[in-house]
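Internal ticket - ligand job 375, L5K734KM:
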Amino acid sequence: MKTLIEIRRDLHRIPELGFQEVKTQNYLLEQISALPQERLTIIQWKTGIVVKIKGMQGKKTIGWRTDIDGLPITEATGLPFQSEHEEKMHACGHDVHMTVALGLLRKLVDNPVNDHVVLIFQPAEEGPGGALPMREWLKQEYPELVPEQIYAFHIAPEYPVGTVATRPGLLFANTSELFIDLVGKEGHAAFPHQAKDMSIAAATLLLQLQTIVSRSVNPMDPAVLTIGKMSSGTVQNIISGQARLEGTIRTMDAATMTTIKQKIESFCHAAEIAFDCDIRIDYGSSYYQVKNDETLANDFISFAKRDPSTTAIVCDAAMTGEDFGYFLQEIPGVLFWAGVESPFGLHHAKLNPNEAVIDYLVPFIDSYFRALSNK
Ligand SMILES: CC(=O)N[C@@H](CCC[C@H](N)C(=O)O)C(=O)O
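stdout (structure tokens):
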């Protein structure tokens, strides 16, 4: 049987984007089917998997969710087990998340807890979002597998291994992707009056969009509008006829998302008139906020504070997005950060989480599930 570190490295080599996680799913199924099967129910959904471990008494069902997809990033860690997939990388730690889930599964198979446990291996967290359709499928097709409580973790590069951090209530933001396509008229650089320059339109629009949070949102209401990518033009002496802005909107209040989208639409409409062009807005995928159950989060923090190998922190909310919010929308539960002490942040091409988190976290979660299950 492979060690958990070997598994993490195998998974790290094969990152796949949302709903394309075919190799990942096969690998996970191989690991799951190598275990004693007596207590297991295994169901596949698209590229995801649900595994139920039958409890000794089964009074309730506790859920654990891991995401399984990678990102469209070219890895630059230089690690011997670096990604074998061009322009794809586990740069958000989902390889570590999956390995911890498999480690927990091994523990629960060896020594089942009183309650049933359902492990959810969910595709497409980075986009377009697997949590909402997977939740709906589970409710519809296997209502008996919908857990009464659900938990998940996310690696946190800023904390050392052995630190967990979370908070009761709102933890992560509402998010929406943002794609804006501008179509004007290409032309020779020497005859600008005959063209409709989309570089100028996109640059102007970009600066205008940056006034929305500072001038249309209550300063006491946190919001972010980031344009992470801007592309335009073909060569140096041709006026660009097409441009594209790609970004993300983050808000703590769902109503503020609507306000920001309305202002984006107004600025785009104004730019269409000012620059005599066509502009199309696509909001891509959007995620519901991550809101921890107050009681369960307090219980989790108290448990972590009592654990001698853990430093427990009550952290601030962050403008991060996570589609685990859709599970928490209907099922009480907790998302927490777990430290992996990396100088490079999430989504960085050099992110290299400290693998020691796996051997720390698996027994920690196992003992938490035992405590929950004995209640
Ligand atoms: C934990 C994490 O890094 N999550 C991502 C989620 C991205 C959602 C979507 N693709 C967007 O950009 O809005 C994050 O960037 O926070």
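Auto-summary: The two ends are 33 Å apart (CA to CA). DSSP finds nine helices and 17 strands in the chain.
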